[in-house]
Amino acid sequence: MADPAPQSLKRTPLYDLHVALGAKIVPFSGYEMPVQYPKGIMAEHVQTRTKAGLFDVSHMGQVTLSGGDAVAALETLVPADIRALQASRQRYTQFTNDKGGILDDLMVTNRSVDLLLVVNAGCKDADIAHLRDRIGKRCRLEVHAERALLALQGPMAAEVLGRFAPACKTMPFMSGLAADVVGVPCYLTRSGYTGEDGYEISMAGDKAMLVAKRLLDEAEVEPIGLGARDSLRLEAGLCLYGHDIDETTTPAEAGLLWSIQKRRREEGGFPGADVVKRQIAEGPARKRVGILPEGRAPAREHTEITDATGKPAGAITSGGFGPTLGAPIAMGYVTTAQAAAGTPLQLVVRGTPRPAKVAPMPFVPQRYYRG
Amino acid sequence: MAERKYTKEHEWIMVDGDVATVGITDYAQGQLGDVVYVELPAAGKQVTQMGQAAVVESVKAASEVYAPLTGEVVEANGALADNPALVNSDPAGAGWFFKIKLSNKGELSGLMDEAAYKTFVDGL
User: Fold this and answer.
1) Residue B39: its chain A contacts at CB < 8 A?
2) Cα–Cα distance measured from residue A20 to residue A80, given in angstroms and rounded to the nearest whole number
3) Any CB–CB contact under 8 A between B34 and chain A?
4) What does the pLDDT average to over B99-103?
5) Which CATH class is domain B4-104?
């Protein structure tokens, strides 16, 4: 995606805090965002894996759907079983197109009074237009552009946030809770994008500075930028929209069938259901897999993948260095014949084939709260 | 101690006789962030001024390192294979990249001295 001219970039309510903390600011999805703070990506990554990290994800879109038909309406756009989503529970899903490709991936929380959707920054304008166009007459759609979103992630996240909102300590993974944090009404979900236990915290934008500063005052918490957010999610095996999934990849190819519940697989009723159902029955021609390069050279996005004999097998969609593993890691699509864990591959890095193998994901164990 | 010269691409060069040692500056390593891999040219490789000579990779991205001068690579810093973080911790010393036997010492006159490089960086 081309970055727009600097004068058109937006800022989150925490921009001044990022600058005061010494962040290196970069353009990302139309926003000026912190890519790293002075301690650097490696230290921020380790901080999140061992203690707690605070992320500003206010660039993401927060949208609510309400009205009697909202659940059925949303089900016409996503393959998840929204009807079976109980009060205060959250689910991961995708907006699909008529070919089963992915327009965006998102989180949906049943807040009883409404459905809260959190969508990617780079897709939010298109998502909102899609929602208005397809289901805008069936339910009330509200875009909460004034709200901020923080993520507090890491093994000490529950202990830290529990000092302010004790009820958060026992809320289930993938659930939501309305709670005050330092006197600010917030909506918490126990979820995130790092593979660690943690929360996303939604609040009015003009209160975000107060909440963020108070959380950063806790000894276990450091600010974390987009650089470590990317290395953390890659180690956790999580997809980045526009890279690992896009309009040309289906949930079956992307290994996201766990997010399509039984009733929806049988009934369909979402865009591209015929394609996805066929791929479930017959198996997709290619699959997203984890890849461990041998040696220390990272293989970046778009790196060509071949089988052990040099025949083209696919391409890397995310690749870098996994600080927890101390080694390069990647994910990409390969032909199904090459997709089994342990399959030897070659990665053509700067013209030179280098050995690698298919690896199970996540690369580091997920440590979500299981009660 | 030999005088250090600099390029606008943030490399430093230290010349001893007709051999130049090349590395990246403290400013460059700070911009890159944590270095996780360095791909160095093999001894014997001919490099051309401003031609690609090495690759340095941070957690986030890969960046090319250009040869500041024309010549033949006579040695690469093998210590970077096991410990690429030397580029961050000691960019002007143990984190050096490679040595070139110069074929045109006249190219040196086009490089910046330390004061000029400092002015250049301050203006960025």
Assistant:
1) 297, 350
2) 41
3) yes
4) 97
5) mainly beta
Q: Considering only CA atoms, which of A82, A68, A66 is closest in space to residue A269?
A: A82
Q: How far is CA A186 from CA A149, A256, B26, in A?
A: 10, 30, 43
End-to-end CA distance of chain A: 40
d(CA B67, CA B7): 10
Q: What DSSP line would sit under A252-317, residue for residue?
A: TTTT-GGGS-HHHHHH--STTHHHHHHHHHH--SEEEEEEEESSS----TT-EEEETTS-EEEEEE
More confident residue, A371 or A356: A356
- B57 close to A (CB below 8 A): yes
- CATH 2.40.30.110 residue spans of chain A: 257-359
Q: Of all residues in chain A, what percent carry a pLDDT higher than 70?
A: 98
ipTM of the modeled complex: 0.88
Chain A CB within 8 Å of residue B61 CB: yes
Strand partners, A203: A148
Which fold is adopted by the domain A6-58+146-235? Gyrase A; domain 2 (3.30.1360)
Separation between Cα atoms, residue A90 and residue B106, nearest integer Å = 67
Q: How far apart are CA A325 and CA A296, in angstroms?
A: 11
Best to test chain B binding among A49, A321, A349, A350 (most B CBs inside 10 Å): A321
pLDDT of B5-23, one tens digit each? 999 999 999 999 999 999 9
Sequence ranges of chain A with CATH classification 3.30.1360.120: 6-58+146-235
Q: Report the residue of B45, B60, B63, B88 to disrupt the A interface, i.e. the one with the largest count of A CBs within 10 Å.
A: B60
Q: Which CATH superfamily is domain A257-359 in?
A: Aminomethyltransferase beta-barrel domains (2.40.30.110)
| Alpha-carbon distance B29 to nearest alpha carbon in chain A (angstroms) | 12
Residue in A40, A230, A328 closest to B33 by CB: A40
CATH code linked to domain A62-143: 3.30.70.1400
